[in-house]
Structures are given as C-alpha cells and as structure tokens.
Amino acid sequence: MSKPIVNALLFQLGWLACVLGGGPWLWLVLPILAVHLLWTASWAAEGKLLLSVFLAGSALDSFLLNLGVFDFGEPRTLIPLWLALLWLLLATTLNHCLAWTAQPWWRGSLLGAVGGPLSYYAGAQLAGVGLPYGTWPTLALLALLWALVMPVLHGFAKLYRSQYQQSLKARRSG
Known about the structure:
Shape: globular
Helix content: over 70%
Radius of gyration: 17 Å
Number of domains: 1
Number of strands: 0
Order of helices and strands: HHHHHH
Distance between the termini: 38 Å
C-alpha cells in the first residue's frame, strides 16, 4: 500500500478516535504520529510543521469558541484536547496525502471550503458539539475560513520543507 494511502487511512482512524472516542481513545494519536514520523525525511522540519499547525489551529478554534461558534456543553475558553489533536493529525497530511492540494493554491482553498465545514459538521454531530449560530451560518463561516486556512497551512509546510532542503545543501557543501 502506498504511503499517501496509509497516511490518509491513519488520519481517518485518528479523526474517528478523537471525535467518537474522546478521552479513552486519544492514545491512538501517539502511534499514528510515531508511524508518520518514521516515514518523514526530517523529524525537525516535520516537527516544526506539526507544532505550528497544532498551535495555529488550536488558537483559531479557541477564538471561534470564544466568539460563540461552538458550544461544548460547558463553559470553557480553550477547545478540548480531542479537537486540538485533530489539528495535529491534519498536519500529518499536508506533505503526504494532501500534498496535491498545495499547488495551485486554489486546490487547497477549494478543499478547505468544502472539506473543512463538512468535517466540522460531522464532528459536531458525532461529538455532540452545539452550533449556536445555526448550522448553515456556521458552515458558511467555516467555508470562508477554511478557504484561507488550507493555503496558509500549505505555506507552513513549504517553509519548513525549504528550510530542510537548505540545511541539506549546507551539510553537503560544508
């Protein structure tokens, strides 16, 4: 089986573990990340990408939470761990099964505008997350945001990939 297919399957397994299982199944994210990192050329570059996407995505979703877009059934200012881990899992796909969406930029925007809201909607339904502004206004907002988010995430991936390639060139010439 090809690495992009395995990458996509591992992402889906992690998504289901986070959304359906929550706390008791979050441990599955660790072996998924381990397999992913074993296949990467540079742990440093991939690690920077994973951390950047995790932090930026968690900040974005926490901002949306504080705007009242999501209701987790209890007062909170930060998103739950299971949702933050989804950002980490998404980061594992950028240089692999979703690499085709990096160029031209509109592919990422199109995938983000369609796939982002659908993923949030499915996750909200399965995990019991409320959408206080209503389903359609929330999906429209998420479509606009994700049309911007995916190209930005691919920008992170490109930046760390080029830093890794530059460090390889420096090592070879020095």
